[in-house]
Amino acid sequence: MIELGCGVGRLHRVAPMILPRFELARPASLAEACALLREGGGEVALLAGGTDLLVKLKRQERRPRLVVSLARVEELRRRERAAGGLVLGALATMSELAGDPLLAGPHAALAEGAGAVGGPLIRNRATVGGNLVSARPCADTAPPLLVLGARLELVSSRGVRSEELDGFILAPGVTRIAPDEVLSAIRVPAGEGRAGSAYLKATRRAAMEVTTAGVAASLLLDAAGKIARARIALASVGPVPLRAPAAEALLVGEAPEPARFARAAELARDAASPIDDHRATAAYRREAVEVLCRRALAAALARAQGRGA
Protein backbone atom coordinates (compact mmCIF):
# COMPACT_ATOMS: atom_id res chain seq x y z
CA MET A 1 0.00 0.00 0.00
CA ILE A 2 1.09 3.56 -0.71
CA GLU A 3 0.34 6.35 1.77
CA LEU A 4 -0.66 9.71 0.28
CA GLY A 5 -0.97 12.92 2.27
CA CYS A 6 -4.23 14.84 1.99
CA GLY A 7 -4.43 17.85 4.30
CA VAL A 8 -2.67 18.30 7.62
CA GLY A 9 -2.22 15.09 9.56
CA ARG A 10 -4.37 12.97 7.23
CA LEU A 11 -3.23 9.92 5.25
CA HIS A 12 -5.10 7.94 2.62
CA ARG A 13 -3.99 4.43 1.70
CA VAL A 14 -4.07 3.67 -2.03
CA ALA A 15 -3.36 0.26 -3.54
CA PRO A 16 -0.59 0.37 -6.19
CA MET A 17 -1.98 0.11 -9.73
CA ILE A 18 0.15 -2.56 -11.42
CA LEU A 19 -0.56 -3.98 -14.84
CA PRO A 20 -1.36 -7.70 -14.99
CA ARG A 21 0.87 -9.95 -17.09
CA PHE A 22 -0.11 -10.35 -20.74
CA GLU A 23 1.38 -10.94 -24.18
CA LEU A 24 1.47 -8.04 -26.65
CA ALA A 25 0.93 -8.32 -30.39
CA ARG A 26 1.38 -5.46 -32.88
CA PRO A 27 -0.22 -6.52 -36.20
CA ALA A 28 0.48 -4.45 -39.30
CA SER A 29 -2.90 -5.03 -40.94
CA LEU A 30 -6.55 -5.29 -40.07
CA ALA A 31 -6.61 -8.87 -41.37
CA GLU A 32 -3.85 -9.83 -38.92
CA ALA A 33 -5.68 -8.16 -36.04
CA CYS A 34 -8.90 -10.03 -36.91
CA ALA A 35 -7.04 -13.33 -37.06
CA LEU A 36 -5.58 -12.73 -33.59
CA LEU A 37 -9.05 -11.97 -32.24
CA ARG A 38 -10.48 -15.12 -33.80
CA GLU A 39 -7.71 -17.28 -32.37
CA GLY A 40 -7.80 -15.64 -28.96
CA GLY A 41 -11.09 -17.15 -27.90
CA GLY A 42 -12.32 -14.22 -25.83
CA GLU A 43 -9.02 -13.68 -23.99
CA VAL A 44 -7.92 -10.80 -26.22
CA ALA A 45 -8.15 -7.04 -25.61
CA LEU A 46 -7.74 -4.46 -28.37
CA LEU A 47 -5.53 -1.47 -27.60
CA ALA A 48 -6.30 1.74 -29.51
CA GLY A 49 -5.52 4.96 -27.61
CA GLY A 50 -5.40 3.12 -24.28
CA THR A 51 -7.13 5.81 -22.23
CA ASP A 52 -9.85 3.35 -21.18
CA LEU A 53 -8.14 -0.06 -21.42
CA LEU A 54 -5.06 0.83 -19.40
CA VAL A 55 -7.18 2.06 -16.52
CA LYS A 56 -9.18 -1.19 -16.55
CA LEU A 57 -5.98 -3.25 -16.64
CA LYS A 58 -4.51 -1.39 -13.68
CA ARG A 59 -7.72 -1.83 -11.72
CA GLN A 60 -7.69 -5.55 -12.57
CA GLU A 61 -11.11 -5.13 -14.19
CA ARG A 62 -9.73 -6.88 -17.25
CA ARG A 63 -7.08 -9.63 -17.33
CA PRO A 64 -6.58 -10.58 -21.01
CA ARG A 65 -4.06 -13.20 -22.05
CA LEU A 66 -3.21 -11.15 -25.16
CA VAL A 67 -3.35 -7.41 -25.86
CA VAL A 68 -3.48 -6.53 -29.57
CA SER A 69 -2.18 -3.04 -30.30
CA LEU A 70 -3.74 -1.45 -33.37
CA ALA A 71 -1.12 1.31 -33.59
CA ARG A 72 0.49 -0.05 -36.78
CA VAL A 73 -2.80 -0.61 -38.68
CA GLU A 74 -2.69 2.45 -40.92
CA GLU A 75 -6.03 1.70 -42.60
CA LEU A 76 -7.71 2.55 -39.28
CA ARG A 77 -6.38 6.13 -39.42
CA ARG A 78 -8.07 7.34 -42.61
CA ARG A 79 -10.17 10.49 -42.63
CA GLU A 80 -11.60 11.24 -46.04
CA ARG A 81 -14.55 12.27 -48.11
CA ALA A 82 -16.25 9.38 -49.87
CA ALA A 83 -19.37 8.84 -51.93
CA GLY A 84 -22.26 9.82 -49.71
CA GLY A 85 -20.29 11.41 -46.86
CA LEU A 86 -17.23 11.05 -44.64
CA VAL A 87 -15.22 8.00 -43.62
CA LEU A 88 -13.46 8.32 -40.26
CA GLY A 89 -11.04 5.58 -39.28
CA ALA A 90 -11.58 4.22 -35.77
CA LEU A 91 -8.07 5.33 -34.73
CA ALA A 92 -8.73 8.99 -35.51
CA THR A 93 -7.87 10.83 -32.30
CA MET A 94 -9.98 13.46 -30.59
CA SER A 95 -7.34 16.10 -31.34
CA GLU A 96 -7.41 15.21 -35.03
CA LEU A 97 -11.19 15.36 -35.22
CA ALA A 98 -11.43 18.59 -33.23
CA GLY A 99 -9.21 20.35 -35.77
CA ASP A 100 -10.30 18.58 -38.95
CA PRO A 101 -11.64 20.92 -41.69
CA LEU A 102 -13.76 17.99 -42.96
CA LEU A 103 -15.93 18.51 -39.88
CA ALA A 104 -16.81 22.12 -40.59
CA GLY A 105 -20.37 23.15 -41.37
CA PRO A 106 -22.99 20.40 -41.00
CA HIS A 107 -20.60 18.11 -39.09
CA ALA A 108 -19.45 20.70 -36.56
CA ALA A 109 -21.08 18.86 -33.64
CA LEU A 110 -18.55 16.03 -33.96
CA ALA A 111 -15.59 18.41 -33.88
CA GLU A 112 -17.10 20.03 -30.78
CA GLY A 113 -17.70 16.65 -29.11
CA ALA A 114 -14.13 15.52 -29.82
CA GLY A 115 -12.75 18.83 -28.55
CA ALA A 116 -14.70 18.40 -25.31
CA VAL A 117 -13.02 15.12 -24.33
CA GLY A 118 -10.64 15.42 -21.35
CA GLY A 119 -7.59 17.65 -21.72
CA PRO A 120 -5.01 17.98 -24.52
CA LEU A 121 -2.98 14.93 -23.45
CA ILE A 122 -6.08 12.73 -23.38
CA ARG A 123 -7.33 14.08 -26.72
CA ASN A 124 -3.96 13.29 -28.31
CA ARG A 125 -4.40 9.60 -27.36
CA ALA A 126 -8.14 8.90 -27.16
CA THR A 127 -9.71 7.58 -30.36
CA VAL A 128 -13.22 7.92 -31.74
CA GLY A 129 -13.51 4.14 -32.07
CA GLY A 130 -12.52 3.61 -28.46
CA ASN A 131 -14.95 6.31 -27.33
CA LEU A 132 -17.82 4.39 -28.92
CA VAL A 133 -16.82 0.80 -28.12
CA SER A 134 -16.10 1.58 -24.46
CA ALA A 135 -19.81 2.51 -24.31
CA ARG A 136 -19.63 4.98 -21.46
CA PRO A 137 -22.78 7.08 -20.90
CA CYS A 138 -20.62 10.22 -20.89
CA ALA A 139 -18.91 9.56 -24.28
CA ASP A 140 -18.77 12.99 -25.93
CA THR A 141 -18.60 11.80 -29.54
CA ALA A 142 -21.60 9.45 -29.33
CA PRO A 143 -24.38 12.12 -29.26
CA PRO A 144 -22.90 14.10 -32.20
CA LEU A 145 -22.53 10.93 -34.25
CA LEU A 146 -26.09 9.91 -33.36
CA VAL A 147 -27.57 13.19 -34.61
CA LEU A 148 -25.41 12.98 -37.75
CA GLY A 149 -26.84 9.54 -38.59
CA ALA A 150 -23.53 7.65 -38.37
CA ARG A 151 -23.10 4.00 -39.33
CA LEU A 152 -20.33 1.74 -38.07
CA GLU A 153 -18.14 -0.53 -40.19
CA LEU A 154 -17.33 -3.74 -38.27
CA VAL A 155 -14.71 -6.15 -39.60
CA SER A 156 -13.86 -9.74 -38.66
CA SER A 157 -12.36 -12.80 -40.32
CA ARG A 158 -15.94 -13.57 -41.38
CA GLY A 159 -16.25 -10.37 -43.41
CA VAL A 160 -17.49 -6.80 -43.10
CA ARG A 161 -20.85 -5.63 -41.81
CA SER A 162 -22.47 -2.24 -41.28
CA GLU A 163 -24.63 -1.22 -38.34
CA GLU A 164 -26.30 2.02 -37.31
CA LEU A 165 -24.82 3.69 -34.26
CA ASP A 166 -28.37 4.26 -33.01
CA GLY A 167 -29.02 1.06 -31.05
CA PHE A 168 -25.39 -0.14 -31.10
CA ILE A 169 -24.73 0.77 -27.45
CA LEU A 170 -26.89 -1.45 -25.24
CA ALA A 171 -25.74 -0.62 -21.69
CA PRO A 172 -22.69 0.84 -19.95
CA GLY A 173 -19.73 -1.07 -21.40
CA VAL A 174 -21.97 -3.25 -23.59
CA THR A 175 -22.40 -2.95 -27.38
CA ARG A 176 -23.49 -5.07 -30.32
CA ILE A 177 -19.89 -5.66 -31.42
CA ALA A 178 -19.00 -9.37 -31.57
CA PRO A 179 -15.92 -10.66 -29.68
CA ASP A 180 -14.06 -11.26 -32.95
CA GLU A 181 -14.91 -7.90 -34.55
CA VAL A 182 -12.95 -4.68 -34.91
CA LEU A 183 -14.65 -1.33 -35.35
CA SER A 184 -12.77 -0.17 -38.43
CA ALA A 185 -14.52 3.05 -39.46
CA ILE A 186 -17.42 5.38 -38.84
CA ARG A 187 -19.35 6.53 -41.90
CA VAL A 188 -21.10 9.89 -41.57
CA PRO A 189 -23.61 10.96 -44.24
CA ALA A 190 -22.85 14.10 -46.19
CA GLY A 191 -24.51 17.27 -44.96
CA GLU A 192 -27.40 17.85 -47.33
CA GLY A 193 -28.82 21.25 -48.18
CA ARG A 194 -29.13 23.74 -45.34
CA ALA A 195 -27.92 21.62 -42.41
CA GLY A 196 -26.23 22.51 -39.15
CA SER A 197 -25.27 20.78 -35.92
CA ALA A 198 -23.83 21.59 -32.49
CA TYR A 199 -22.73 19.89 -29.26
CA LEU A 200 -22.64 21.48 -25.82
CA LYS A 201 -21.92 20.01 -22.41
CA ALA A 202 -21.91 20.97 -18.75
CA THR A 203 -19.14 20.00 -16.32
CA ARG A 204 -18.04 21.03 -12.85
CA ARG A 205 -14.85 22.54 -14.22
CA ALA A 206 -13.52 23.58 -17.62
CA ALA A 207 -11.14 20.67 -18.37
CA MET A 208 -10.32 17.07 -17.45
CA GLU A 209 -13.83 16.48 -16.13
CA VAL A 210 -16.39 13.82 -16.98
CA THR A 211 -19.47 15.26 -18.65
CA THR A 212 -22.30 16.07 -16.25
CA ALA A 213 -24.78 16.48 -19.11
CA GLY A 214 -24.35 16.90 -22.85
CA VAL A 215 -26.65 17.67 -25.78
CA ALA A 216 -26.08 17.34 -29.53
CA ALA A 217 -28.55 18.77 -32.02
CA SER A 218 -28.79 18.78 -35.81
CA LEU A 219 -31.27 20.57 -38.05
CA LEU A 220 -32.02 20.40 -41.76
CA LEU A 221 -34.02 23.28 -43.23
CA ASP A 222 -36.23 23.06 -46.32
CA ALA A 223 -36.46 25.63 -49.11
CA ALA A 224 -39.03 27.64 -47.13
CA GLY A 225 -36.80 27.78 -44.07
CA LYS A 226 -38.84 25.31 -42.02
CA ILE A 227 -37.34 22.35 -40.19
CA ALA A 228 -37.28 19.29 -42.47
CA ARG A 229 -35.37 17.08 -40.05
CA ALA A 230 -34.36 17.42 -36.40
CA ARG A 231 -32.23 15.13 -34.25
CA ILE A 232 -31.38 15.55 -30.58
CA ALA A 233 -29.15 13.24 -28.51
CA LEU A 234 -28.15 13.38 -24.84
CA ALA A 235 -25.04 12.32 -22.91
CA SER A 236 -24.56 11.44 -19.23
CA VAL A 237 -28.26 11.45 -18.41
CA GLY A 238 -29.04 7.77 -18.92
CA PRO A 239 -27.32 4.38 -19.08
CA VAL A 240 -26.59 4.96 -22.78
CA PRO A 241 -26.54 8.03 -25.07
CA LEU A 242 -30.22 8.89 -25.58
CA ARG A 243 -32.27 10.25 -28.45
CA ALA A 244 -35.19 12.60 -27.66
CA PRO A 245 -37.82 11.52 -30.23
CA ALA A 246 -40.70 13.59 -28.84
CA ALA A 247 -38.58 16.74 -28.98
CA GLU A 248 -37.49 15.91 -32.53
CA ALA A 249 -41.06 15.29 -33.69
CA LEU A 250 -42.22 18.61 -32.25
CA LEU A 251 -39.78 20.49 -34.49
CA VAL A 252 -40.29 18.78 -37.85
CA GLY A 253 -42.39 20.80 -40.30
CA GLU A 254 -42.32 23.90 -38.10
CA ALA A 255 -40.61 27.27 -38.28
CA PRO A 256 -37.39 27.39 -36.19
CA GLU A 257 -38.62 29.82 -33.55
CA PRO A 258 -37.25 30.33 -30.00
CA ALA A 259 -40.55 29.37 -28.38
CA ARG A 260 -40.64 26.05 -30.23
CA PHE A 261 -36.99 25.41 -29.33
CA ALA A 262 -37.87 26.09 -25.69
CA ARG A 263 -40.71 23.55 -25.79
CA ALA A 264 -38.48 20.98 -27.53
CA ALA A 265 -35.87 21.53 -24.81
CA GLU A 266 -38.49 20.75 -22.17
CA LEU A 267 -39.32 17.48 -23.95
CA ALA A 268 -35.61 16.62 -24.16
CA ARG A 269 -35.36 17.22 -20.41
CA ASP A 270 -38.27 14.82 -19.91
CA ALA A 271 -36.50 12.18 -22.04
CA ALA A 272 -33.49 12.19 -19.71
CA SER A 273 -33.21 9.53 -17.00
CA PRO A 274 -30.25 10.71 -14.92
CA ILE A 275 -29.02 9.59 -11.50
CA ASP A 276 -27.66 11.38 -8.46
CA ASP A 277 -23.90 10.99 -8.04
CA HIS A 278 -20.91 12.90 -6.70
CA ARG A 279 -20.83 15.14 -9.80
CA ALA A 280 -24.43 16.35 -9.82
CA THR A 281 -27.99 15.55 -8.80
CA ALA A 282 -30.50 14.10 -11.22
CA ALA A 283 -32.54 17.31 -10.91
CA TYR A 284 -29.56 19.44 -11.91
CA ARG A 285 -28.84 17.21 -14.88
CA ARG A 286 -32.41 17.52 -16.14
CA GLU A 287 -32.27 21.31 -15.91
CA ALA A 288 -28.87 21.31 -17.63
CA VAL A 289 -30.31 19.26 -20.51
CA GLU A 290 -33.08 21.81 -21.03
CA VAL A 291 -30.68 24.76 -21.13
CA LEU A 292 -28.08 22.99 -23.28
CA CYS A 293 -30.71 21.73 -25.72
CA ARG A 294 -32.12 25.20 -26.27
CA ARG A 295 -28.63 26.57 -26.91
CA ALA A 296 -27.55 23.66 -29.13
CA LEU A 297 -30.65 24.05 -31.31
CA ALA A 298 -29.95 27.77 -31.68
CA ALA A 299 -26.33 27.07 -32.66
CA ALA A 300 -27.37 24.37 -35.14
CA LEU A 301 -29.90 26.75 -36.68
CA ALA A 302 -27.30 29.50 -37.06
CA ARG A 303 -25.04 27.08 -38.92
CA ALA A 304 -27.85 25.80 -41.11
CA GLN A 305 -28.65 29.41 -42.04
CA GLY A 306 -24.98 30.16 -42.75
CA ARG A 307 -24.58 32.41 -39.69
CA GLY A 308 -22.27 30.16 -37.65
CA ALA A 309 -18.84 28.60 -38.01
Task: Please report which band the strand proportion falls in: under 5%, 5-15%, 15-25%, 25-35%, 35-45% or over 45%.
Answer: 25-35%
Query: How many H/I helices?
Result: 10
Question: Judging from the principal axes of the Cα atoms, what is the shape?
Answer: globular
In round numbers, the mean pLDDT is 91
CATH fold label of the largest domain:
Uridine Diphospho-n-acetylenolpyruvylglucosamine Reductase, domain 3
Largest sheet at a glance? Answer: 5 strands, antiparallel
Please trace the helix and strand order, writing H or E for each element.
Answer: EEEHEHEEEHHHHHEEEEEEEEEHHH
Number of domains: 3
Low-pLDDT segments: 1-9
Report the span from N to C terminus: 51 Å
Strand order of the largest sheet: 6-7-12-8-9
CATH architecture of the largest domain: 2-Layer Sandwich
Portion in helices: 25-40%
Q: What do you see in this structure?
A:
The chain contains 10 helices and 16 strands. It has 309 residues and is of the alpha+beta class. It folds into 3 domains: 68 residues, Uridine Diphospho-n-acetylenolpyruvylglucosamine Reductase, domain 2; 116 residues, 2-Layer Sandwich (Uridine Diphospho-n-acetylenolpyruvylglucosamine Reductase, domain 3); 111 residues, CO dehydrogenase flavoprotein, C-terminal domain (Enolase-like, domain 1). Helix 8 packs antiparallel against helix 9 and helix 9 packs antiparallel against helix 10. It starts with a strand and ends in a 5-residue tail after the last helix.
Please supply descriptive tags for the structure shown above.
disordered N terminus, Uridine Diphospho-n-acetylenolpyruvylglucosamine Reductase, domain 3, about 300 residues, 5-stranded antiparallel sheet, 4-stranded antiparallel sheet, 10 helices, 3 domains, Uridine Diphospho-n-acetylenolpyruvylglucosamine Reductase, domain 2, Enolase-like, domain 1
